[in-house]
Amino acid sequence: MILFGRSPFLHRSQWDDVAKQDPRRAAQIGSIRRLEALGARVRIASVDTADEIGLTSLFDQLEAEGMPPIRGVVHAAGVATANALLELSAQELSDVLRPKVAGAWLLHRLLAGARLDFFINFSSGAALLGSPLLGSYAAANAFLDALAHHRRAHGMPVLSVNWGFWSEIGMAARSQREIGRGFAPQGMASFSPEQGLGALAQLLRTGATQTAVIPIDWGEWGRCHPRAVHAPLLRNVVQTETEMGFDASVEVVEADADREAILAAPSTERKTMVQQLLGRQIARVLRIPAAELDRNQPLNYLGIDSLMAVELRNHVQAHLGVVVPVAQLLENASTAQLAESIVNQLADADADFSIGAASDGLRAQNRQMSEAESAREALSRLDGMSDKEVDAMLNKMAQHDN
Predict the structure, then answer these.
(1) Which residue ranges does the chain devote to CATH 3.40.50.720?
(2) What does the pLDDT look like over 257-284, one tens digit per residue?
(3) Domain 248-368 CATH assignment equals 1.10.1200.10
(4) Under CATH, to which class is 47-215 assigned?
(5) Which of 30, 92, 131, 401 is buried most, with the most CB atoms less than 10 Å from its CB?
(6) Where are the alpha helices (DSSP H) in 154-294?
(7) Distances (CA, A) of 115 to 25, 155, 181
(8) Contact status, residue 28 vs residue 36, Cβ threshold 8 Å
Protein backbone atom coordinates (compact mmCIF):
# COMPACT_ATOMS: atom_id res chain seq x y z
CA MET A 1 0.00 0.00 0.00
CA ILE A 2 1.34 3.43 -1.00
CA LEU A 3 0.16 6.54 0.84
CA PHE A 4 1.29 9.78 -0.73
CA GLY A 5 0.51 13.46 -0.47
CA ARG A 6 2.18 16.84 -0.66
CA SER A 7 2.94 17.22 3.05
CA PRO A 8 6.20 15.56 4.13
CA PHE A 9 5.68 12.73 6.61
CA LEU A 10 7.92 12.01 9.55
CA HIS A 11 10.50 9.26 9.58
CA ARG A 12 9.36 6.23 11.54
CA SER A 13 12.05 6.82 14.16
CA GLN A 14 10.22 10.03 15.18
CA TRP A 15 6.71 8.60 15.37
CA ASP A 16 6.57 7.82 19.08
CA ASP A 17 7.78 11.26 20.16
CA VAL A 18 5.52 13.19 17.79
CA ALA A 19 2.45 11.09 18.62
CA LYS A 20 2.65 12.31 22.22
CA GLN A 21 2.55 15.97 21.15
CA ASP A 22 0.39 16.14 18.01
CA PRO A 23 -3.09 14.50 18.20
CA ARG A 24 -3.62 14.70 14.44
CA ARG A 25 -0.28 13.03 13.68
CA ALA A 26 -0.99 10.50 16.40
CA ALA A 27 -4.24 9.52 14.66
CA GLN A 28 -2.44 9.16 11.31
CA ILE A 29 0.35 7.08 12.79
CA GLY A 30 -2.17 4.93 14.64
CA SER A 31 -4.07 4.23 11.39
CA ILE A 32 -0.89 3.19 9.61
CA ARG A 33 0.11 0.86 12.42
CA ARG A 34 -3.35 -0.76 12.44
CA LEU A 35 -3.04 -1.42 8.71
CA GLU A 36 0.36 -2.99 9.20
CA ALA A 37 -0.98 -5.11 12.06
CA LEU A 38 -3.48 -6.56 9.56
CA GLY A 39 -0.60 -7.60 7.31
CA ALA A 40 -0.36 -4.63 4.95
CA ARG A 41 3.00 -3.27 3.86
CA VAL A 42 2.67 0.53 3.95
CA ARG A 43 4.95 2.80 1.93
CA ILE A 44 4.73 6.56 2.59
CA ALA A 45 5.84 9.04 -0.08
CA SER A 46 5.79 12.84 -0.13
CA VAL A 47 4.61 13.43 -3.68
CA ASP A 48 2.13 15.90 -5.16
CA THR A 49 -0.33 13.98 -7.34
CA ALA A 50 -0.47 17.00 -9.67
CA ASP A 51 3.32 16.90 -10.21
CA GLU A 52 3.87 14.76 -13.30
CA ILE A 53 7.64 14.54 -12.87
CA GLY A 54 7.40 13.62 -9.20
CA LEU A 55 4.61 11.09 -9.76
CA THR A 56 6.40 9.45 -12.70
CA SER A 57 9.60 9.26 -10.68
CA LEU A 58 7.77 7.57 -7.80
CA PHE A 59 6.22 4.93 -10.06
CA ASP A 60 9.60 4.26 -11.70
CA GLN A 61 11.26 3.94 -8.30
CA LEU A 62 8.62 1.49 -7.06
CA GLU A 63 9.12 -0.65 -10.15
CA ALA A 64 12.91 -0.55 -9.76
CA GLU A 65 12.60 -1.68 -6.14
CA GLY A 66 10.57 -4.69 -7.22
CA MET A 67 7.35 -3.54 -5.55
CA PRO A 68 4.18 -5.33 -6.67
CA PRO A 69 2.33 -3.55 -9.48
CA ILE A 70 -0.34 -1.03 -8.50
CA ARG A 71 -3.79 -2.64 -8.52
CA GLY A 72 -6.01 0.18 -7.27
CA VAL A 73 -6.27 3.93 -6.79
CA VAL A 74 -8.12 6.03 -4.20
CA HIS A 75 -7.84 9.69 -5.15
CA ALA A 76 -8.92 11.70 -2.08
CA ALA A 77 -6.83 14.87 -2.44
CA GLY A 78 -8.63 18.18 -2.23
CA VAL A 79 -8.54 21.83 -1.23
CA ALA A 80 -11.57 24.04 -0.57
CA THR A 81 -11.67 27.80 -0.12
CA ALA A 82 -14.78 29.95 0.23
CA ASN A 83 -14.82 32.75 -2.38
CA ALA A 84 -17.48 34.45 -4.44
CA LEU A 85 -16.77 33.84 -8.13
CA LEU A 86 -16.34 37.56 -8.83
CA GLU A 87 -13.68 37.75 -6.12
CA LEU A 88 -11.88 34.52 -7.09
CA SER A 89 -8.35 35.09 -8.37
CA ALA A 90 -6.68 32.91 -10.98
CA GLN A 91 -4.25 31.61 -8.35
CA GLU A 92 -7.03 30.71 -5.93
CA LEU A 93 -8.88 28.88 -8.70
CA SER A 94 -5.72 27.00 -9.65
CA ASP A 95 -5.06 26.02 -6.02
CA VAL A 96 -8.48 24.36 -5.81
CA LEU A 97 -8.51 22.75 -9.27
CA ARG A 98 -4.92 21.46 -9.23
CA PRO A 99 -5.14 18.55 -6.75
CA LYS A 100 -8.41 17.17 -8.10
CA VAL A 101 -8.25 17.96 -11.81
CA ALA A 102 -4.54 17.66 -12.57
CA GLY A 103 -4.02 14.98 -9.93
CA ALA A 104 -6.83 12.72 -11.12
CA TRP A 105 -5.91 13.16 -14.78
CA LEU A 106 -2.26 12.26 -14.17
CA LEU A 107 -3.23 9.13 -12.23
CA HIS A 108 -5.64 8.20 -15.03
CA ARG A 109 -3.03 8.76 -17.74
CA LEU A 110 0.07 7.33 -16.04
CA LEU A 111 -1.79 4.17 -14.97
CA ALA A 112 -3.70 3.70 -18.22
CA GLY A 113 -1.85 0.48 -18.95
CA ALA A 114 -2.08 -0.95 -15.43
CA ARG A 115 -4.47 -3.79 -14.60
CA LEU A 116 -6.42 -1.94 -11.93
CA ASP A 117 -9.15 -3.50 -9.82
CA PHE A 118 -10.54 -0.08 -8.81
CA PHE A 119 -10.06 3.63 -9.43
CA ILE A 120 -11.99 5.62 -6.81
CA ASN A 121 -12.49 9.38 -6.95
CA PHE A 122 -13.55 11.10 -3.74
CA SER A 123 -15.88 13.70 -5.23
CA SER A 124 -18.35 15.93 -3.38
CA GLY A 125 -22.06 16.62 -3.18
CA ALA A 126 -21.11 20.23 -3.95
CA ALA A 127 -20.84 19.22 -7.61
CA LEU A 128 -24.51 18.14 -7.59
CA LEU A 129 -26.42 20.39 -5.21
CA GLY A 130 -24.51 23.63 -5.60
CA SER A 131 -22.63 25.31 -2.81
CA PRO A 132 -22.51 29.10 -2.59
CA LEU A 133 -18.93 30.43 -2.25
CA LEU A 134 -17.60 27.01 -3.30
CA GLY A 135 -17.94 27.34 -7.07
CA SER A 136 -14.31 26.42 -7.71
CA TYR A 137 -14.58 23.39 -5.44
CA ALA A 138 -17.80 22.28 -7.13
CA ALA A 139 -16.11 22.59 -10.54
CA ALA A 140 -13.10 20.55 -9.40
CA ASN A 141 -15.33 17.73 -8.20
CA ALA A 142 -17.48 17.88 -11.32
CA PHE A 143 -14.30 17.08 -13.26
CA LEU A 144 -13.83 13.93 -11.18
CA ASP A 145 -17.37 12.86 -12.05
CA ALA A 146 -16.79 13.54 -15.75
CA LEU A 147 -13.53 11.58 -15.65
CA ALA A 148 -15.40 8.65 -14.12
CA HIS A 149 -17.82 8.52 -17.04
CA HIS A 150 -14.92 8.88 -19.47
CA ARG A 151 -13.13 5.90 -17.94
CA ARG A 152 -16.31 3.83 -17.88
CA ALA A 153 -16.93 4.61 -21.56
CA HIS A 154 -13.46 3.21 -22.31
CA GLY A 155 -13.98 0.04 -20.29
CA MET A 156 -11.79 1.09 -17.34
CA PRO A 157 -12.71 0.46 -13.69
CA VAL A 158 -13.92 3.57 -11.89
CA LEU A 159 -16.14 4.88 -9.12
CA SER A 160 -16.79 8.54 -8.33
CA VAL A 161 -18.56 9.18 -5.01
CA ASN A 162 -20.24 12.52 -4.35
CA TRP A 163 -19.76 12.47 -0.61
CA GLY A 164 -21.81 14.47 1.83
CA PHE A 165 -20.46 15.40 5.27
CA TRP A 166 -18.20 12.91 7.03
CA SER A 167 -18.15 13.23 10.82
CA GLU A 168 -14.87 12.96 12.75
CA ILE A 169 -12.60 13.04 9.68
CA GLY A 170 -12.11 15.12 6.56
CA MET A 171 -12.05 18.83 5.68
CA ALA A 172 -15.56 19.62 6.93
CA ALA A 173 -14.96 17.85 10.26
CA ARG A 174 -11.66 19.70 10.79
CA SER A 175 -13.27 23.05 9.99
CA GLN A 176 -16.18 22.24 12.30
CA ARG A 177 -13.78 21.60 15.17
CA GLU A 178 -11.91 24.85 14.45
CA ILE A 179 -14.92 27.18 14.35
CA GLY A 180 -17.21 25.24 16.65
CA ARG A 181 -20.21 24.73 14.39
CA GLY A 182 -21.40 22.32 11.73
CA PHE A 183 -21.56 22.83 7.97
CA ALA A 184 -24.35 20.48 6.96
CA PRO A 185 -27.31 22.45 5.53
CA GLN A 186 -30.78 22.16 7.02
CA GLY A 187 -32.25 18.75 6.22
CA MET A 188 -28.85 17.15 5.69
CA ALA A 189 -26.98 14.96 8.19
CA SER A 190 -23.41 13.75 8.47
CA PHE A 191 -22.31 10.11 8.62
CA SER A 192 -19.62 8.25 10.54
CA PRO A 193 -16.42 6.86 8.97
CA GLU A 194 -17.80 3.35 9.51
CA GLN A 195 -20.98 4.23 7.61
CA GLY A 196 -19.01 5.89 4.82
CA LEU A 197 -16.70 2.92 4.36
CA GLY A 198 -19.68 0.58 4.41
CA ALA A 199 -21.32 2.58 1.63
CA LEU A 200 -18.06 2.56 -0.34
CA ALA A 201 -17.79 -1.22 -0.09
CA GLN A 202 -21.38 -1.61 -1.28
CA LEU A 203 -20.81 0.68 -4.27
CA LEU A 204 -17.69 -1.23 -5.29
CA ARG A 205 -19.68 -4.45 -5.23
CA THR A 206 -22.44 -3.01 -7.42
CA GLY A 207 -20.06 -1.63 -10.06
CA ALA A 208 -21.50 1.91 -9.86
CA THR A 209 -19.89 4.69 -11.90
CA GLN A 210 -21.09 7.74 -9.96
CA THR A 211 -23.19 7.80 -6.83
CA ALA A 212 -23.98 10.39 -4.16
CA VAL A 213 -23.76 9.37 -0.51
CA ILE A 214 -25.64 12.12 1.34
CA PRO A 215 -28.00 11.41 4.25
CA ILE A 216 -30.77 13.89 3.52
CA ASP A 217 -34.42 14.56 4.25
CA TRP A 218 -35.52 15.91 0.87
CA GLY A 219 -38.73 17.35 2.21
CA GLU A 220 -37.01 19.39 4.94
CA TRP A 221 -34.13 20.36 2.66
CA GLY A 222 -36.56 21.52 -0.01
CA ARG A 223 -38.57 23.59 2.46
CA CYS A 224 -35.41 25.30 3.70
CA HIS A 225 -34.02 25.87 0.19
CA PRO A 226 -37.07 26.48 -2.02
CA ARG A 227 -35.04 28.09 -4.85
CA ALA A 228 -32.63 25.16 -5.13
CA VAL A 229 -35.38 22.61 -5.77
CA HIS A 230 -35.71 23.82 -9.37
CA ALA A 231 -32.42 22.22 -10.40
CA PRO A 232 -33.16 19.71 -13.20
CA LEU A 233 -31.33 17.00 -11.28
CA LEU A 234 -33.80 17.31 -8.40
CA ARG A 235 -36.99 17.75 -10.41
CA ASN A 236 -38.32 14.30 -9.56
CA VAL A 237 -36.93 14.23 -6.02
CA VAL A 238 -37.92 17.42 -4.19
CA GLN A 239 -41.30 19.08 -3.97
CA THR A 240 -41.79 22.29 -5.92
CA GLU A 241 -42.43 25.68 -4.30
CA THR A 242 -46.14 25.45 -5.15
CA GLU A 243 -46.43 22.04 -3.47
CA MET A 244 -44.70 23.46 -0.39
CA GLY A 245 -47.09 26.42 -0.25
CA PHE A 246 -44.55 29.08 -1.22
CA ASP A 247 -45.92 31.94 -3.32
CA ALA A 248 -43.15 34.14 -4.77
CA SER A 249 -45.65 36.68 -6.18
CA VAL A 250 -46.62 37.74 -2.65
CA GLU A 251 -43.01 38.62 -1.92
CA VAL A 252 -42.82 40.98 -4.91
CA VAL A 253 -45.84 42.99 -3.71
CA GLU A 254 -44.44 43.15 -0.17
CA ALA A 255 -41.02 44.21 -1.47
CA ASP A 256 -42.10 47.51 -3.04
CA ALA A 257 -44.11 48.47 0.05
CA ASP A 258 -41.22 47.70 2.43
CA ARG A 259 -38.63 49.80 0.60
CA GLU A 260 -40.99 52.74 0.08
CA ALA A 261 -42.09 52.71 3.72
CA ILE A 262 -38.53 52.69 5.03
CA LEU A 263 -37.35 55.47 2.71
CA ALA A 264 -40.39 57.57 3.66
CA ALA A 265 -39.73 57.18 7.39
CA PRO A 266 -37.57 59.57 9.44
CA SER A 267 -33.90 58.53 9.47
CA THR A 268 -34.11 57.84 13.22
CA GLU A 269 -36.70 55.11 12.64
CA ARG A 270 -35.18 53.36 9.64
CA LYS A 271 -32.81 51.07 11.53
CA THR A 272 -35.63 49.67 13.67
CA MET A 273 -37.78 49.08 10.56
CA VAL A 274 -34.95 47.32 8.73
CA GLN A 275 -34.19 45.26 11.82
CA GLN A 276 -37.80 44.10 11.97
CA LEU A 277 -37.81 43.18 8.29
CA LEU A 278 -34.51 41.32 8.64
CA GLY A 279 -35.85 39.48 11.66
CA ARG A 280 -38.87 38.28 9.66
CA GLN A 281 -36.71 37.12 6.75
CA ILE A 282 -34.12 35.38 8.94
CA ALA A 283 -36.86 33.63 10.91
CA ARG A 284 -38.47 32.60 7.61
CA VAL A 285 -35.22 31.08 6.34
CA LEU A 286 -34.58 29.32 9.67
CA ARG A 287 -38.21 28.16 9.91
CA ILE A 288 -38.64 29.57 13.42
CA PRO A 289 -41.06 32.14 14.90
CA ALA A 290 -39.69 35.67 14.57
CA ALA A 291 -40.23 36.19 18.32
CA GLU A 292 -37.62 33.49 19.07
CA LEU A 293 -34.88 35.25 17.09
CA ASP A 294 -32.03 36.81 19.10
CA ARG A 295 -31.11 39.88 17.03
CA ASN A 296 -27.80 40.33 18.82
CA GLN A 297 -26.62 36.79 18.06
CA PRO A 298 -24.25 36.37 15.04
CA LEU A 299 -26.05 34.77 12.10
CA ASN A 300 -23.53 31.95 11.80
CA TYR A 301 -24.43 30.82 15.33
CA LEU A 302 -28.13 30.87 14.52
CA GLY A 303 -27.63 28.01 12.04
CA ILE A 304 -27.45 29.95 8.75
CA ASP A 305 -25.67 27.76 6.19
CA SER A 306 -24.40 28.79 2.76
CA LEU A 307 -27.57 27.93 0.84
CA MET A 308 -29.72 29.65 3.45
CA ALA A 309 -27.45 32.71 3.24
CA VAL A 310 -28.11 32.92 -0.50
CA GLU A 311 -31.85 32.59 0.16
CA LEU A 312 -31.67 35.38 2.75
CA ARG A 313 -29.58 37.56 0.43
CA ASN A 314 -32.21 37.19 -2.29
CA HIS A 315 -35.06 38.13 0.08
CA VAL A 316 -33.21 41.24 1.30
CA GLN A 317 -32.37 42.32 -2.23
CA ALA A 318 -35.97 41.83 -3.35
CA HIS A 319 -37.45 43.73 -0.41
CA LEU A 320 -34.97 46.57 -0.07
CA GLY A 321 -33.09 46.80 -3.35
CA VAL A 322 -29.70 46.47 -1.67
CA VAL A 323 -27.13 43.71 -2.06
CA VAL A 324 -25.69 42.07 1.04
CA PRO A 325 -22.69 39.82 0.22
CA VAL A 326 -23.27 36.18 1.11
CA ALA A 327 -19.90 36.13 2.88
CA GLN A 328 -21.15 38.84 5.24
CA LEU A 329 -24.15 36.70 6.15
CA LEU A 330 -21.86 33.79 7.02
CA GLU A 331 -19.53 35.83 9.22
CA ASN A 332 -20.05 37.20 12.72
CA ALA A 333 -22.54 39.95 11.89
CA SER A 334 -25.71 40.06 13.98
CA THR A 335 -29.15 41.11 12.77
CA ALA A 336 -28.63 44.51 14.42
CA GLN A 337 -25.27 45.03 12.71
CA LEU A 338 -26.64 44.01 9.33
CA ALA A 339 -29.53 46.41 9.77
CA GLU A 340 -27.14 49.30 10.32
CA SER A 341 -25.15 48.40 7.19
CA ILE A 342 -28.34 48.18 5.11
CA VAL A 343 -29.63 51.52 6.44
CA ASN A 344 -26.39 53.13 5.31
CA GLN A 345 -26.81 51.64 1.84
CA LEU A 346 -30.39 52.90 1.65
CA ALA A 347 -29.27 56.38 2.72
CA ASP A 348 -26.60 56.40 0.01
CA ALA A 349 -29.13 55.25 -2.60
CA ASP A 350 -31.59 57.93 -1.47
CA ALA A 351 -28.89 60.60 -1.73
CA ASP A 352 -27.88 59.40 -5.19
CA PHE A 353 -31.51 59.62 -6.29
CA SER A 354 -31.77 63.22 -5.05
CA ILE A 355 -28.57 64.20 -6.81
CA GLY A 356 -29.79 62.47 -9.95
CA ALA A 357 -33.11 64.31 -9.87
CA ALA A 358 -31.28 67.63 -9.73
CA SER A 359 -29.22 66.62 -12.76
CA ASP A 360 -32.06 65.88 -15.20
CA GLY A 361 -30.93 68.67 -17.51
CA LEU A 362 -27.40 67.29 -17.72
CA ARG A 363 -28.63 63.75 -18.35
CA ALA A 364 -30.91 65.02 -21.11
CA GLN A 365 -27.90 66.62 -22.76
CA ASN A 366 -25.88 63.44 -22.43
CA ARG A 367 -28.66 61.37 -24.00
CA GLN A 368 -28.20 63.40 -27.16
CA MET A 369 -24.84 61.76 -27.71
CA SER A 370 -24.98 59.12 -30.38
CA GLU A 371 -24.36 55.47 -29.52
CA ALA A 372 -21.18 55.58 -31.58
CA GLU A 373 -19.84 58.57 -29.64
CA SER A 374 -20.67 56.85 -26.32
CA ALA A 375 -18.91 53.67 -27.39
CA ARG A 376 -15.78 55.56 -28.52
CA GLU A 377 -15.70 57.52 -25.26
CA ALA A 378 -16.01 54.31 -23.19
CA LEU A 379 -13.32 52.51 -25.16
CA SER A 380 -10.91 55.42 -24.75
CA ARG A 381 -11.15 55.03 -20.96
CA LEU A 382 -11.19 51.22 -20.85
CA ASP A 383 -7.45 50.57 -20.43
CA GLY A 384 -7.25 52.79 -17.36
CA MET A 385 -10.31 51.36 -15.62
CA SER A 386 -10.30 48.78 -12.84
CA ASP A 387 -12.34 45.58 -13.06
CA LYS A 388 -14.94 47.03 -10.71
CA GLU A 389 -15.24 50.18 -12.83
CA VAL A 390 -15.69 48.09 -15.98
CA ASP A 391 -18.38 46.01 -14.26
CA ALA A 392 -20.16 49.17 -13.12
CA MET A 393 -20.05 50.60 -16.66
CA LEU A 394 -21.44 47.39 -18.18
CA ASN A 395 -24.23 47.23 -15.60
CA LYS A 396 -25.12 50.84 -16.31
CA MET A 397 -25.23 50.18 -20.08
CA ALA A 398 -27.41 47.09 -19.51
CA GLN A 399 -29.85 49.05 -17.38
CA HIS A 400 -30.01 51.78 -20.01
CA ASP A 401 -30.76 49.22 -22.75
CA ASN A 402 -33.56 47.73 -20.65
Answers:
(1) 47-215
(2) 577 787 778 878 888 888 888 888 888 7
(3) yes
(4) alpha beta
(5) 131
(6) 171-179, 193-206, 218-224, 248-264, 267-286
(7) 33, 12, 44
(8) no
